[in-house]
Amino acid sequence: MPPKTTNIAIMFADISGSTRLFEILGDATARVTVSDTLELLTKVVHIHSGTVIKTIGDEIMCTFPTADDSANAANEMQETLEDVADMREEGAPEIKIRVGMHYGPALLEGGDVFGDAVNVAARMAAQAKGGQIITTKSTVDLLQPIMRASTRFVDRAPIKGKKEDIEIFEIIWQEEDVTRMATGMLKEMPKVPQVSLQVDYAGKTITLDQNKSSLVMGRSQACDMPINEKLASRQHVRIELRRNKFFIIDQSTNGTHIAMDSIDDNFLRREEAQITANGKISLGKSFAENPTEVVSFTLQSS
User: Fold this and answer.
1) Which ranges of the chain would DSSP assign to H, the alpha helix?
2) b/e for 116-144, b at 16 or more Cβ within 10 A?
3) pTM given for the model
4) Rounded CA separation 49/217 (Å)
5) pLDDT tens digits along 53-91
6) Which domains does the chain have, with CATH numbers?
7) CA 78/CA 95 separation, integer angstroms
């Protein structure tokens, strides 16, 4: 069968600073750590309809049918390693990966991939730092609007074989900082009724109050309340109590839908809103889509 050329998304992901990892852990332990990390990345690739082409040392090369599949997988790779970092033993080195991706024509032959798109994806990976996802403008243009909004222009760079420089973009996957009020500088306020928030999902109830003031929901089992929704990020949304008021803070890729008061579906994406009444939450999926994984909440005052 002759070689087949097709448009696909190509991704390279490699462990940043692996040489230092071997110096710190020693050869045997470092090899196990690298192997375990590549195994985690492989699982993420398969979840997002991808194919692992090969692993080379501390690097994995894979392909995806669409740019969105590739971007979602890249986000989850970074989030997965962040979860692992949160659970690592004290003093253990943090594992970070550099991810580069590009969507374009490539030649599929003998279980391998060749062509211009492969070279561009490899160059994007070389441009990335640990914890970054780097891609091209042409790939960003193919992403869904929500994902595209989480990108930023980084630079222009020459690519071998290209007459013009390529515009390089970063996909922002980390939780963004939300401005907080410096409460210690405020004057003492008069006593007000204490509030609590009861959050319910799939038979589990968590009550937020002065004793427990925050709650994280998402697809990760490390969350306070794991949500079985494919469109949810691993640590999708946070609810917290601030000065006797509850706020919901979205920190996800696909956004959070909240129904409350007279608003049937208020959409939050990398922003926050105050909880002022009883309501319900859907992670990544609008209420018009009749989501099955819905979180309800009840606001109480005493």
Assistant:
1) 18-25, 27-47, 67-87, 116-127, 137-140, 145-148
2) bbbbbbbbbbebbebbbbbbbeebbebbe
3) 0.64
4) 25
5) 999 888 999 999 999 999 999 999 998 888 877 666 666
6) 4-171 (3.30.70.1230), 183-301 (2.60.200.20)
7) 10
